[in-house]
Design the sequence.
């Protein structure tokens, strides 16, 4: 089942739908910002305040180059639902990973890798929702 701009245009719930999608776009970045103190406590030797935001944002810049190709291969639903589900799993797993592997280089770089993946997924999600919103008059 595909969502079309015509279906959303006449819907009274369109404003609520796009508000929730906007909140979904911001959740992963806010989770990174709110978790900086926690992750700094778990990995005091890593430069958490600098490197975590760089990993997340660099992934978004990197993913932007591949977004036009991805649009032709995945449906809108998959470009929205899959990144949200995987990002939610990463957000649940990050504190667990930090507790299990605290004060280790492996734990720090695994956290960086997970944030890089989450940044790429956020870019795919945000680009897809923004593109869909621009097609609704």
Sequence:
């Amino acid at each position: 089942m595909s969502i079309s701009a015509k279906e959303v245009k006449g819907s009274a719930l369109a404003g609520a739908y796009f508000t929730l999608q906007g909140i979904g776009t911001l959740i992963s970045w806010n989770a990174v910002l709110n978790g900086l103190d926690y992750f700094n406590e778990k990995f005091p030797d890593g430069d958490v305040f600098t490197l975590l935001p760089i990993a997340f944002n660099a992934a978004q810049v990197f993913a932007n180059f591949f977004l036009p190709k991805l649009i032709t291969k995945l449906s809108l639903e998959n470009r929205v639902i899959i990144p949200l589900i995987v990002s939610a799993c990463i957000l649940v797993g990050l504190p667990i990973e930090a507790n299990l592997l605290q004060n280790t280089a492996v734990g720090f770089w695994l956290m960086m890798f997970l944030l890089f993946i989450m940044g790429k997924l956020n870019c795919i999600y945000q680009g897809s929702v923004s593109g869909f919103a621009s097609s609704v008059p």
